[in-house]
Amino acid sequence: MDTKLKNSHRVGVCLCLLLVTAASLLTVLAYPYMQEKALRWHEGYEQSMEESSKAEYSASIQIMNSIYQAWREQKQKEAGQILTPSQVFLPGLEEKIRQKQSGQGSSSVSGDETWEDSENLSYDAYYYEDLQATMDSVGQEWQSFAREYSRILPYEMLDRQGKVLGSNVENPSAFFSRKLENGQIRLSLYFDESGSMEVKSVDGSDANRDRMGNLMTNYQFYDPLELRLSGDYRYSGVVFSGPKDVNFVYQFDLEDFRYLDGPTTPMLHDYVSSGGYYGVVATIGGVLALLALILPAVRPLGLGEGRCSRLSFEPMCFLALCWTALVCGGVPAGMIELTTRGEIIRELTDAGILPAVAEILEFLANLAMWMFVYGSLFWMAVSAGAVFRLGLWRYLKERTWILRFCRFIKRWVVRCLNPFNEVDWHSNSTKAIGKAVIANFIILALISLLWFAGIGVLIIYSLVLFVLIQRYWKQMQKKYDVLLNAINQMAEGNLDVDVTENLGLFEPLKEQLARVRQGFKKAVDQEVKSERTKTELITNVSHDLKTPLTAIITYVNLLKQPGITEEERDSYIDVLEQKSMRLKVLIEDLFEVSKASSGSVNLNLEPVDLVSLIKEVRLELSERIAGCGVDFRWKLPEEKVIANLDGQRTYRIFENLLVNITKYAMPNTRAYVTLETQDGWVVITLMNISAAEVTVSPQELMERFVRGDESRNTEGSGLGLAIAKSFTELQDGTMELSVEGDLFRVVLRWRVMEESAAEELKED
Questions:
Q1: HSE-up of 400 (CA within 13 Å, CB side)?
Q2: Under DSSP, is residue 201 helix (H, G, I), strand (E, B) or coil?
Q3: How far apart are CA 623 and CA 606, in angstroms?
Q4: Parallel, antiparallel or unpaired: strands 670-678 and 734-740
Q5: CATH 3.30.565.10: does it fit domain 603-763?
Q6: How far apart are CA 106 and CA 108, in angstroms?
Q7: Is 100 helix (H, G, I), strand (E, B) or coil?
Q8: Cα–Cα distance between 459 and 675 in angstroms, integer?
Q9: Which of 156, 316, 376, 459 would bridge 167 by S-S if both were Cys, CB 3.0 to 4.6 A apart?
């Protein structure tokens, strides 16, 4: 039986596909009818317009389009390769784009200048790339129009000696030497070495000749890009380069240019306005929709019962609007226009496809488009037909989102009003208990009105109350077991347990339990991190102390060897001195950071001019800064910025941070040091690009013995940032460190002292 139903359903689906295919095929076969209707409408429309000099104007435009396309083809022939319009008409533009792309942001500015003093980059690489895209788009338009008007606009292109360079007719010499027929015009144009165009001769009837000559004179110094670009184009350094040192001869009939939109083929507007397009689509689509409503009534076909046919009302309305917009918007009409004009076949043959194959592909493309259009219509009609099969009320309940949402809201409200599921233990219980007592009193009072019969009702009431209380008790017991199980798992050390069920009365306890679990987990993670930090600290201290100590022992043993020369002895002593000083600096840094962390540092607070202090540090580190390959940019105010600080400790902060930049910044990049005041605070910002990828967080970078260079290839103890942070915070300041990709930024903040207060403090 099931097999029979499946076979019947397959027959129904095949029938639907057959109907949609037949409707699509009929529409494609109706293209000539729609084209004829569009042509008749177009002719009537054109006859109602004023003709005046429209033909001459249209001819002049298409002549210029043909000239530029012919010149591009000539340049491609000379180059032996395909050239884009921008390569032909804007020579040097690609080189200018490459220069801008490589030169932007690489200006060399002295260290005392700020990065705001950058040059004006209004004509940047993006401007020239947009110019290139515009030129290529215009060139494609020229190519399209030249192909369209090639049949009615024959030409020949001659060099200065009269040699034919190109033509769109066979035997151009014989063609252009023939006597002109009535209404024809022969036009000769010359482009000199500068690209200026001159009308050499115009042959034809007097009226047409004069108007045509005057129109073509307007193109003497014509630049087609000026009309499409803003006034900045003329100052961009890019000049349009058109035909040069060449003659063009055109011979045409002005009668062929009667229609501005094209000589023989209708356009998209004609198909839409003529009524032929809408008439065919409405007729075939209406018949197909009617069949889609009728066929589901034939039970053996099994149409309208599958999932695909259960489309809800709201999305169906949305799809219907989209379908109407697609059809009325002219997308299928545009496909009809391209097909009847032969544009699709022309593009396919240009791509190297055989004409016969191109015709088949064009037919299949049109058939597929209409199958999509009519298939969508058939699907929506079958889905809408469910209102007849189910009835209006059932259709609204099952196939509309609005009614289904209302039913969901109803169930939700009933569930929320159930007093056995939700109780707020934080609220006053008097109101809830009072409601329950009053409700029970009303029920008992109503039962008592029944006299002796009320005894039976009271028994039923008691049984119902027993069942409800027992059900509620079991629910609460189950939820209690879930909560107790979660607590037991936490007690056994499983902090990843998560309770997802709704616990009703115990819901507040579940929330508190989740907070306790998160707190325990956070504490455990913090302890693990602390232990790991201690281990890493011991490892790093051992490593950084052992390295210079091992070197000292090694070179002492070398000094003990007999027979070493004085030169070797001096070399070994120099190395010993370096390693000893390295060990001394490391121990001093460790001592400093230990004192700072314990808060046992004695600060000598006094008014300190931070501008002068930074300049002093810059001067002391000038050799190191100059040799690191980083371009430092300093933005320091001229006036003093005074803060109550320990000058020695603050000097150490800036020294550590600047040395850090010289070690870890990428060579040939910029580093920025700025000082400014904001709302009573002095803000000092240091920024640089890291040479190596920073894989640790900013918080970990400020820990002791943590270095951004994990391979530890650079000299350093890993204490610089930790010391700077400790000294900053000891002086009531803040130090913020951030890493964005390879951008490393440190921001220091201290309170600013007024100069009067600083003077008083100095006098005391």
A1: 12
A2: strand
A3: 29
A4: unpaired
A5: yes
A6: 6
A7: helix
A8: 87
A9: 156
| SS3 sequence of 692-706 | CCCCCCHHHHCCCCC
- Amino acid at site 174: A
Find the DSSP H helices in 178-239: 206-217
311: left (phi over 0), alpha (psi -120 to 50) or beta: beta
CA distances in angstroms from 134 to 83, 125, 219, listed in the order given = 15, 14, 20
Provide the token pair at 135: 């030129």
Cβ(158)–Cβ(246) under 8 Å?
Answer: yes
Alpha-carbon span 625 to 10, nearest angstrom = 81
| Residue 703 φ/ψ, nearest 5 degrees | -80, 160
Per residue in 86-122, pLDDT (tens digit) is 899 988 888 888 888 887 544 443 444 333 333 444 6
Helix (H, G, I), strand (E, B) or coil at 630: coil
The DSSP result for 35-47, as a single string, is HHHHHHHHHHHHH
Inter-residue contact 288 to 378 (CB < 8 Å): yes
Contacts of 330 (CB under 8 A, 6+ apart): 268, 271, 272
How far is C-alpha 49 from the geometric centre of its chain's CA atoms? 48
Rounded Cα distance between 235 and 242, Å, is 18
Q: What is the dihedral of CA 696, 701, 705, 709, to 10 degrees?
A: 50
- pLDDT single digits (tens) 408-465: 645 544 454 455 455 555 555 566 566 666 767 777 777 677 677 767 777 777 777 7
Structure token digits, residue 603: 């600060």
Mean pLDDT by 10 residues, the chain (764 residues): 56 81 87 78 55 69 90 91 90 84 55 38 77 88 88 90 89 87 87 90 78 83 78 78 92 74 51 71 86 76 66 82 79 79 81 85 88 85 78 77 65 47 54 65 73 73 73 77 78 71 67 74 74 64 68 80 81 78 70 63 85 91 89 92 89 88 91 93 93 76 54 54 83 90 91 72 56
Label the pairing between strands 670-678 and 631-635. parallel
Q: How far apart are CA 521 and CA 514, in angstroms?
A: 10
Q: What is the three-state SS of 590-601?
A: HHHHHHHHHCCC
What kind and span of H or E run contains 390?
A: helix 386-390
The answer for residues whose C-beta is within 8 angstroms of residue 537's C-beta and 6 or more apart is 704, 705
Contact 350, 11 (CB under 8 A): no
Give the global pTM.
Answer: 0.33
CA distance 367 to 30: 12
In angstroms and rounded to an integer, the radius of gyration of the C-alpha atoms of the chain is 44
Q: Where, residue-wise, is CATH 3.30.565.10 in the chain?
A: 603-763
Strand order in the sheet with 164-167: 164-167, 155-158, 246-253, 184-191, 197-203
> For residue 676, how many other CB atoms are within 10 A of its CB?
13
Q: How far is CA 383 from the centre of its chain?
A: 37
Question: Strand, helix or coil at 197?
Answer: strand
The token pair that represents 474 in the structure block:
């079991």
For 664-702, the DSSP string reads HBPTTSEEEEEEEEETTEEEEEEEEEBSS---S-HHHHT
- Cβ-Cβ contacts under 8 Å for 661 (sequence gap 6 or more): 628, 630, 632, 671, 686, 688
Task: In whole angstroms, give the CA distance from residue 369 to residue 24.
Answer: 8
